[in-house]
Amino acid sequence: MTDIQKKKIHYEVSENLSRYLSGYSRSFLIPVRYEDLLRYENSMPLIDKQGRDTLWESVMFPYGEMDEINSGLTSIYAQLQAGGDTSVIEHLSIDRIDYCTFGNSNPFRIRVINNFNDNYDYFYMKTADASRVYGAEIEHILSPNRINYIIDGSTLVEEHIAGIPGDHFIEEYMKPKRINEIRVAKEFIKFNERCFVCLLGDMRSYNFVIDMTPDFDAVQYRIRSIDFDQECYEGKKNMYLPQFFKENKAYVDLCISHITPETVAQYQKEERALIAKRLYAGRHRITDLMIVMTQDVISTPEKVVQLRTELAQHYNEPEFLDCGNMGSILKLNLQIADKDSVL
Fold first, then answer.
1. How distant, in Å, are the alpha carbons of 14, 32, 134, 256, 305 from that of 295?
2. How far apart are the C-alpha atoms of 170 and 202, rounded to whole Å?
3. Predicted pLDDT of residue 53
4. CA–CA distance, 55 with 165 (Å, rounded to integer)
5. Which backbone phi and psi does 156 adopt, to 5 degrees?
6. How far apart (Å, rounded) are the C-alpha atoms in residues 253 and 249?
7. Cα(312)–Cα(304) distance, rounded to whole angstroms?
8. Which residues fall within 8 angstroms of residue 93, CB to CB, at 6 or more apart?
9. Residue 101 in contact with residue 55, Cβ under 8 Å?
10. How far is CA 86 from CA 22, 32, 77, 83, 317, in A?
11. Fold entry, domain 164-337
12. Mean pLDDT of 321-325
């Protein structure tokens, strides 16, 4: 099993990456930034329905600042969801602001509520980290999922990704006859392969969600990452394979119980073929991103050497040993996934 021992190093968004983000409509000026939310006055622990500490705190701001903060946050929500059309937020208000004390990004989670029907939505504000931005972009281009986010300087704003957290899914749904075990196993194999090809690490069960969609004859499952902090950061190859995390053992057991090695290989090939199709469809965007990423520093020299060495052995491909940074390693990894590479 695999474990991450140290907190990830923060890497600022470079000028080249900022220009890329502006060119693809990811960069906007926003009225409230992450550091503004750090000026909260009081907080209280947020407890879930079972009475357990969620590791989130609901924060409160000085009375004289609340109106300005609430107005700014609803404007950000309009930018994120409606391209800045403020007419959509006339009946919205900020119901709660939560702060997470756990993990790398220490995000704020903002709950937006519809005053007419009490329907609510969330979005997140975090410190912009280059690894996280690259991970979100690669997920947007090469996975079946679209990632909605905007950035302003050192502040990253992310849309809420709906689904059942992977660890809660194990506790609440992995019971006899509650799920289609074969379909969940198949999706985990495809998710595992996608993470490895895109070098998205640390996909432990609490860093992804299960999206369940009723179909006419059964339920379809999709696993979606909700954390992109470990994109091309770790040196160990197994960090990019969710199957090796002890938190995911229940999913691995499903695969072992229901899927033969031959079928595993089939699903892996299918997923690589889909990634190759997305590479071609998004060839201009991914090429622009790789130009930026291969000039950037998003990990330590020691981790770069370790990962290129392990991937060279894994693929029996000595070309990995010539890669000087994580961007170059990812580019070659994608080229291997796409035999007729567009990169």
1. 10, 31, 13, 41, 16
2. 18
3. 85
4. 15
5. -115, 130
6. 6
7. 12
8. 70, 74, 112, 113, 115
9. yes
10. 21, 16, 9, 9, 53
11. Transferase(Phosphotransferase); domain 1 (1.10.510)
12. 98
Backbone conformation region of residue 298, classed left if phi is above 0, alpha if psi is from -120 to 50, else beta? alpha
Non-local (6+) Cβ contacts of 244 within 8 A are: 1, 2, 238
- Distance in angstroms (rounded) separating the CA atoms of residues 182 and 284: 36
Number of H helices, E strands in the chain: 11, 10
Is 80 exceeded by the pLDDT of residue 192?
A: yes
Within 10 A of 317 (CB to CB), how many other CB atoms are there? 14
Place of tokens 């912009």: 128
**Largest alpha-carbon pair distance within the chain?**
64
Q: What is the mean pLDDT of the chain?
A: 94
For residues 163 and 43, is the Cβ–Cβ distance under 8 A? no
Structural domain spans, the chain: 15-159, 164-337
- Rounded mean pLDDT of 269-278? 95
Burial class (CB in 10 A: 0-12, 13-18, 19+), 154: middle
Q: Who's near 178: CB < 8 A, 6+ residues apart?
A: none
Matching residue, tokens 């392990």: 310
Distances in Å between the alpha carbon of 33 and those of 97, 126, 129, 155, 159? 14, 9, 14, 6, 15
Q: Give Cα separations from 311 to 181, 314, 316 (angstroms).
A: 31, 5, 8
